[in-house]
Specification:
With 227 residues, the protein is α+β, with helices and mostly antiparallel strands. The chain is built from four helices and eight strands; from the N terminus they run E-E-H-H-E-E-H-H-E-E-E-E. It has a six-stranded antiparallel beta sheet with strand order 4-3-7-6-5-8. A two-stranded antiparallel sheet has the order 1-2. The protein is globular and about 50 Å long. It starts with a strand and ends in a 42-residue tail after the last strand.
């Protein structure tokens, strides 16, 4: 039996992305798996639509994944957050700005990364280290931001993955500092995000689990935007 598949949203009817070939490559980290998945969804080099992202195709890395929505230049809020991210920070992150997980001194850098992700658009990778606070040792982390188009065709969403050395036991209240950043511009046709808050299109970041979606699979929590 073949592995999880994703129905493509491009102009070619019947386009299906097979995820088994990515999942079978044990050497891929969640960061690289997510990028390979996102790349496979690109239609003629275009930025994928958010509705093309199916949790079933990302089931092996959902705990590390999150989805953000651009609300203003350099500002994005967290719509969905995986368990690794919420547990590491010991709090519910949905609806919060992405900058909330960064130290104040790093917020200009994350603002620049968000502008690059949505406006270029670009794939952005950040090397991070946490602050050592309240008896918690510092730990390193890596984040990738992969731009997505909304239902209206503007680049105002992003699929993110955060992988860290957090020990998985005691929640950390530390915030991240940026120790390195790399961006790669996305080539091909796309609509750049307008210099205004993102429109609230109908639907959700990831689609809601389809009928028959296994309850024992890891999944992200759904955050619905206020109208």
């Amino acid at each position: 039996m073949s592995g999880p598949t994703l129905q493509g949203g491009g102009t070619g009817a019947g386009t299906v992305v097979e995820m088994q070939r990515f999942q079978a490559r044990a050497s891929l980290t969640p960061i690289r798996q997510a990028e390979a998945y996102w790349t496979a969804l690109r239609d003629g080099g275009d930025v994928p639509l958010r509705t093309q992202i199916d949790p079933r195709g990302l089931q092996d890395l959902l705990e590390y994944a999150f989805v953000i929505e651009r609300v203003a230049p350099g500002i994005a809020r967290i719509r969905l957050a995986g368990q690794h991210m919420t547990s590491a920070f010991g709090m519910e992150l949905r609806g919060m700005p992405l900058s909330a997980v960064f130290a104040p001194a790093a917020r200009d850098e994350i603002k620049n990364a968000l502008v690059e992700t949505f406006d270029a658009p670009a794939v952005c990778e950040l090397s991070l280290t946490s602050e050592a606070r309240y008896g918690h040792p510092a730990f390193n982390a890596h984040m990738i931001l992969l731009p997505l188009k909304s239902d209206l065709g503007d680049v105002s969403r992003a699929l993110g993955v955060l992988v860290s050395e957090w020990d998985g036991n005691t929640p950390s209240s530390a915030r991240f500092k940026v120790t390195g950043a790399v961006s790669r511009h996305v080539s091909g046709p796309q609509h750049r995000s307008p210099d205004r808050p993102a429109d609230h299109a109908t639907g959700t970041g990831f689609r809601e689990p389809a009928a028959g979606y296994r309850a024992d699979c890891p999944r992200l929590r759904l955050v619905k935007s206020d109208p």
